[in-house]
Amino acid sequence: MVARRQVRTMIEYILVVLTALLATTCILQRKRYTDLRDEYHHYLDNHECESPTVQRVENHYEDIIDRMQERHAAKLAIQAEEYEEKLEELRQEGKQSLEVNVKHEFDAGDTNE
């Protein structure tokens, strides 16, 4: 019984750590995309060109960066939601297991008297 609780606690701990890593990854990816965009704008500011072709290319790359951010954020949100659901399932299983163990111990105490 104690081993089960320890395993469940360890699994909960692992899920919490994975969720934290997922959030950290999301933050780092967002920073990476923002840095890329800033670098791109800095380059354009230093190499100004009013050509329509350059404007189309600029808009195209900005759209690509925006889509990459949206897709990555959506994937991370789905993963975080899955981790949260699994964590909640484990908490419920642990709570039910604890209730059953307490009931068995209580029932066993009645038969000893």
Automatic annotation (TrEMBL):
This protein's source sits in the domain of life called Archaea
Q: What keywords are assigned to this protein?
A: Coiled coil
Q: What positions belong to coiled-coil segments? A: 73-100
Q: Report what the protein is called.
A: Uncharacterized protein
Question: Source species, please?
Answer: Haloterrigena salifodinae
